[in-house]
Amino acid sequence: MYSLQGAGYNLLRNPDEFLESLGMKTSAQPSTQNSSLAPTKENQAKRAAQTQSKASSQPKKKKPGFESSFEAYESPYSKSPIYTPRYDWQNDQQERLRRFGINPTAHTEPTTPQTTSRTQNRDAYDSRVRAAYAERERQIDFSDVSALNAELADIEAAENRDPNSAWYKRLVRAWESGDRKTYEQVEREMATRKERVKYILDSRNRTYEDDFIGQFGASYHNGDLEYEEAIALENPTFDNKQNAEGLRAARDEIRRNNAETLAYDAENPLVSQIIPENLPRLIDRVGEGLEYFDTGAVFGALDESARNMHYSRNRYNVDLPENDDAARAIGWKTERANCHQFTAPDGERYTKYISPDGKREVIFNEDGQIVYAAEDQGSYNYANPNFWVQHGLLDILPWIRYGNTPYDTTTPQQRIGGLFNFG
After folding, report:
1. Can you spell out the DSSP letters for 322-350?
2. Mean pLDDT throughout 53-79?
3. Cα-flanking dihedrals φ and ψ of residue 394, to 5°?
């Protein structure tokens, strides 16, 4: 008897045998579509071979992080396209440090917290090492004239594409690295270095005549060097420190070469020396304030220059007599000293002597000794006291505003009171 349970089992297991048991013959040659779907050993082997050939034809994926991050482009120094290589920091870091003369132990890998990834740690180390290379290449002695001349000649050779030039080699390496920003940065560094070296060399060789025009020019140039040095030290980077060193050496050289011109014996030092010395700073600060329509910055720059010019007067108050007898012997006269009694002890009064031209002053106590206290010391007059208008504008008003020196502890109210004290 035919079993339905067995028939269902045979139907699911082998449909061909089930049809034959019912007297229904199947075709001797099955269709291509059905044969391809039948799970025979031949079809399974065929599918495996197709899958393997398809996988072998596809390129293998590279590990992420090792591809170049820059596009290939033609270099003017090479016929083949340039690709940016990854810095092989594990293999050649020590060798490259030694080649540049840098101690490898001074640039060891920093210890970072666990939250910092290996890639970040490596990139941070990369940036420091490359900065050390760049500083090593740019390091010269800015105080040495021969080193400056050699640097200028090397830059000019690089501009003429001389392959032996150190700056030209830097440009080639920057271009072949594939980073256009790095190449442009090296170009800017070379142009800035050339400008600075030429300015320092030109400043060291300048000489001026000992007359009004020469005093004005030497003082202006000296003030410009001093101001440029101060600007460089406001941002003390590697290049700025080298530049400040060269500017300081140039300023010392110009003072030696023009010692007579810059001596404190000018007939009108305010116009020929003091004002031109402060002009570079004043022009720059006022121009910056006007550019941004900042009236506060403009008035601040004017006040700063007026204060500096006022305090600069004290360096001209030299060659003073040692006592009152010596002062009278060389023709110095006594003057009312109401403005010079702030530090006098009770019951004692200081005496003031003034030179015959009315410019230099000296203050003596009752023992005949010179008084050097900042509140009462003698000062240099830009104008003769006999000319009240000029003396009031150039000497009295700045004294009321700023005092004798930066260390003067008196207030403007006390100075006004001392000025009108006729007791």
Report:
1. SSHHHHHHTT-EEE--GGG-TTPPTT---
2. 48
3. -90, -20
